[in-house]
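Protein in question kept in full:
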Amino acid sequence: MTTVCASSDIHSPRHLELFKKALEESRCDPDVFVLAGDVVERNNIAEYGRVLSLLKTRHPGTPIVAVFGNEEYRGFEKEYMEKYRDVVFLNDSYRILEARGSRLVVVGPRGALDKPTKWQEKNLPGLARYYSELPARLSELLSDASSTHLPILLVTHYGVTHRNLIGENPAVYPYLASVRMEEVIARHSGLLKAVIHGHAHNGAVESVEVGGVKVYNVALPARGRIVEVEV
């Protein structure tokens, strides 16, 4: 088993103190730590370093894997990757990780929504097409990852089902997740051992099963703590 500790939606500096408290109170002893997007607020790249400083102090030497959220703006991925080279950033990609003698594959896109927000429609042309095409692209990525014959952990920022969005306003469900991801998860349930996502700040349900695979919402405002996932 590989122990994964996970969090997201720190929106530093907004929830940085809550993240610090969550780390201090956590009993999770991670092989890998996952940051599932929206680590900073409004693309404040420097704030990412403050989050990492807290994380490394609490869990020195632990591999850190991250995906980008909507607050880590599109087009700035390379800047994050170059500034924080000790983080394994996934951007529609996957990586084999080795930690404490265990090996697993982490697959990481930002994720998709049922439909773009009005702001996204206005300011990010082409995003609706990306959301529409991502489930098929992710399925191909998972097929490639399965060739390693290692357990697979899928990490996205956006949700992958509506089943764990209870607590949110149902009117905004389409802007929090993509239900088309459910079919992708079920199709790859053989080696896909868990799914981690954030974005749903008010999601009252921590985990549900989709196609026999556990799906976790690790958004810090929703959980108030670090989430432990066994893969």
Notes: The domain at 3-230 is CATH 3.60.21.10 (Purple Acid Phosphatase; chain A, domain 2).
